Structure formats: structure tokens, C-alpha cells
């Protein structure tokens, strides 16, 4: 008598997934391109050399990953990936 009604399995909304993935590809190209260009420019401006440029690459790439994670989390709230 107190049994919950059977739940229907959640289905994937492919249109939303495709929209978010497409936007993520576009934004990631911009973010990571800017990270590489910025690290190269700063390393040359300060005179850090090759090792310094690679360290800045790593730092800026980690920042880029953080930006992309935040984007994907926000986008999944606006465009839900699953529906009842």
C-alpha cells in the first residue's frame, strides 16, 4: 500500500548533449589557445626560457581545465542531459 509507483528510466536528451558538447569544443579551443599564447608571451616578456614557458603552459592549462569544468557544470544545469 505504501509502495512508490514504479519509476520510468531517465532518458538522455541528445539534443542538449550535442549542444553542450559543441559549445564546449568551441570554447575549449579558445581557452586553450589563449593559455598557450599567453604563457608564450609572458615567458618571452620576462625572459623565463623554455623551462619557464613550459611551467607557465602547465599553470595556464590547469586554469583552462578549471574554466571548462565550470562551463560544463553550468551548461548541464541550463541544458539538462536527462529527462523523465
What does it look like?
This protein is mostly helical and 84 residues long. It has one domain (12-83). Helix content is 75%, strand content 5%. It is built from 2 helices and 2 strands. Strands 1-2 form a two-stranded antiparallel sheet. The longest helix has 33 residues, at 14-46. It is elongated and about 75 Å long. The relative contact order is 0.19. The mean pLDDT is 89.
Produce a short descriptive summary.
The chain has 84 residues and is mainly α. Helices cover 75% and strands 5% of the residues.
Features:
single chain; about 80 residues
Number of domains: 1
Beta-strand portion reads under 5%
- Major β-sheet, in short? 2 strands, antiparallel
What letter string, H or E per element, gives the SSE order?
A: EHHE
| General shape | elongated
Residue share in helices? over 70%
Indicate the structural class: mainly alpha
How are the strands ordered across the major sheet?
Answer: 1-2
C-alpha-based Rg, rounded: 20 Å
- Total strand count, please? 2
Q: Mean pLDDT, as a whole number? A: 89
Low-pLDDT windows of residues: none
Given the structure, what is the number of helices? 2
End-to-end span in angstroms? 24 Å
